[in-house]
C-alpha cells in the first residue's frame, strides 16, 4: 500500500510540472522558487500578493516573473526583449504547437486612458495549466506605436487571482 501511495505522489508531481520549468509545480512556495532561481528579487504588492522577478535570464528574454497568492505559485510570465524577431516568434509558436497541439486564438483590442492596445493571444490548455502566448502593441491616441511586448504565460487554472 505504501508503494502505491508513493507512486501516486510521484506521478501527480510530474503531472503538475511545467515543461519550461520542470523543477517547479503549481502551489510551490516563494522559498522553493528562490532556491531554483536564486537571481530573483522579491516584490510585495499593495494588495498583499508576492512576486519574484528575474531580470534578463536569457539572450532574448527581458525578465521572468513568478506570481504567488497566499504564498503559492500560480503564474509564471516570461517577457521577451526587443531582440526577438519574426523567425524567433515563429519558432516559439511552432514549439508550443508541437508540445501542446492546436490552440485557441483571441484578438485583443481595448483602450485605457490615452493609450490603445491591440494584439492577440494563442491559448493552450494542458492539465491544470493554461499556456498563453501574447503579442501586444501599445499605441498613443494619435496611432503611433509606443511599445510592443511578447509574453509567454503559464497559469494555474485552479487558482483564482
Topology:
Layout: H1 2-16, E1 17-18, E2 21-25, H2 30-36, E3 41-44, E4 50-58, E5 61-69, E6 72-80, H3 86-100, E7 104-112, E8 115-126, E9 129-140, E10 145-156
Antiparallel strand pairs: 1-2, 3-4, 4-5, 5-6, 6-10, 7-8, 8-9, 9-10
Outline the biggest β-sheet.
8 strands, antiparallel
Strand proportion: over 45%
Report the C-alpha radius of gyration, rounded. 18 Å
Principal-axis shape: globular
* Number of helical regions: 3
- Estimate the helix proportion, in percent: 10-25%
The tally of beta strands, per DSSP, is 10
Could you provide a short overview of the structure?
The protein has 161 residues and is an alpha+beta fold.
Tell me about this structure.
By secondary structure, this protein is α+β, with helices and mostly antiparallel strands. It is built from 3 helices and 10 strands; from the N terminus they run H-E-E-H-E-E-E-E-H-E-E-E-E. It has helices at residues 2-16, 30-36, 86-100, and strands at residues 17-18, 21-25, 41-44, 50-58, 61-69, 72-80, 104-112, 115-126, 129-140, 145-156. The strands form 2 sheets. An 8-stranded antiparallel beta sheet has the order 3-4-5-6-10-9-8-7, with helices on one face. It is globular. Residues 1-17 have low confidence and may be disordered.
Tags for this model:
two-stranded antiparallel sheet, 3 helices, globular
